[in-house]
What does this fold into?
Amino acid sequence: MKKNLFLYDLAIVAILKNEGHYLKEWLDYHLLAGVDHFYLYDNDSADDYNAIVAPYVAAGLVTSEKISGGSAQYAAYNFAVRDYRFLCRRVAFIDLDEFLYPKNTTDTLPAVLDAVMKNFPDAAGLAVNWQIFGSNGQDKADYSRGVLERFTCRAPVDWVVPIPHRDIPGGNAQIKTVANPRRISFFGSSHCPIYFEGCYSVNEAGGQVESYCNEPVTAEKIALNHYNVKSREEHGTKVARGRADKGGVRSADTGANCIDDSWFDMYDRNEVFDDGILRYCAARAENFSLEDDAQRLARVRAALTKTLTAYAEDELSDLETALTCLAASKYLRGNFPNDERLKIYEEASLAAVLKSLDGLKFSDVRLLLSELPNLLSLPYPVMDDLRGAAIQIISRTMDFMRENEFWRDFAAMNDLRLLLKIFRR
It folds into this structure.
């Protein structure tokens, strides 16, 4: 995939609630590290979140959305994948107490990701291990200083501990994911997505990672500094707030993965002094720059023209690229509604989608079907041919599912096929 087709090379999706004390530092750090955009889901914050985030929204760096109720984290992640998967080349799904940290002080996060992932072209995501930081012996919160300055001691790199009430490894064995969002089926865990069939994450050494744990821990090139407990006072506030992925704190009686007062004692690890991330910030600040909106739109437009020309000349036939061209065309039309050439680009992108449908891999079939609701709403004649092609693809996929007794998916596919046949233009 040509990175210039995407509005953002690297974006972060995060959900937050009453984390105004930490938000500005977290945003500024990741901007320094090379993140292009943030999709923030505000889960009923009652603090000064809106005032803090407003300048970043105005600058085009943050898209802020509201999400209410418990167990909102998975919903937020799934909404982000649905809405923004073709605008971002890669997306990191992390929390406000987590900082993605390249170990080489001259590298941006996108540069590190490119260097690691180029060796594993079939991988859809990178699993990044935690590095747990402790309280530095602090009982009280000191919001006059940042998290990175206050907490500079952590557990050893390979520190692993069982999670209370569950027979699975915790500590630095746990990971978060930076992924190609076009290969994600859904999130049912905050640590790792469920990909379309045939897709998977790797660690920085190339080992396949199929859960939210990676052992042995790998953190030589990139780590996720996790300021899990902070001071004892701040940990108490975190406990009272509850968890975004569960809607509240579970007790020992319910069986759990609970985050309570005992969690502080387990995760307050301070054996190793590590201020590397502060030195990284200082080094990156010397060469920091941001792409502005005009530069971004011009870049995407030039890449779109070049890519659609390749399709027209039969030099390219790839579904993921064609759908990315469609998303870029729609985004540009929204910014330049009077430019009739962009309407032509949008229709040409649909023609490219149609051209790319021969010999699809199963993961591409899944990607196509996930996008059908968006495709079928577009008012172009090519949609009749695209609908017919989709019906044929669904029928062939149902044959495979029947042969392998995937009956739940078979039934869902049949429902979709009937809808496509009924609702014709």
